[in-house]
Amino acid sequence: MRNQILAALSIGLLCAFSAQAQQATENAAATYDTPAGPLTVHTGQPAPHQFGPPPAFDQLSHGKGYITAADAESYGLLANDFIHADSNRDGRVSQAEYNRWASSR
After folding, report:
1. Which of 40, 6, 43, 8 is nearest to 23 (CA)?
2. Which of 13, 20, 46, 84 falls 20 to 30 Å from 73 in CA-CA distance?
3. Tens-digit pLDDT profile for residues 39-70
């Protein structure tokens, strides 16, 4: 009997939360009364990371003439897009590939 009550209470809370979550705006909070005390649920997305303009090719390549995946780690956007920037799939981003990638940003 106790398990049925807890299950019904849980379902009720989930339904109430779902209804409020659909109406929630960014960084909203809702508080629910539960047998264990108030429960506050915060919703929302963190602010996106702000990146500046792409650095110069020479800064990332360290004078090698190409950028490796390890070199790209110093600029998060390139690290994330490395396989797309490396259009010939040789494991390196040439200056032409980098310029093409940077202009598409």
Report:
1. 43
2. 46
3. 999 888 878 788 889 999 999 999 999 999 99
Tokens 């629910």 sit on residue: 32
Report the candidate in 44, 68, 87, 10 with the shortest Cα–Cα distance to residue 99: 87
Across the chain, where does the E strand assignment appear? 29-34, 37-42, 66-67, 93-94
pTM: 0.56
Domain ranges of the chain: 2-42, 57-103
Phi and psi angles of residue 27, each rounded to the nearest 5 degrees, phi first = 55, 40
Contacts (Cβ under 8 Å, ≥6 apart) of 78 = 54, 60, 67, 72, 85, 93, 98, 101
Range list of H helices, 1-75: 2-23, 57-61, 69-72
Distances (CA, A) of 99 to 1, 55, 60, 72, 77: 68, 11, 12, 14, 14
Query: Cα dist. 9→14, 20, 74 in Å?
Result: 9, 17, 50
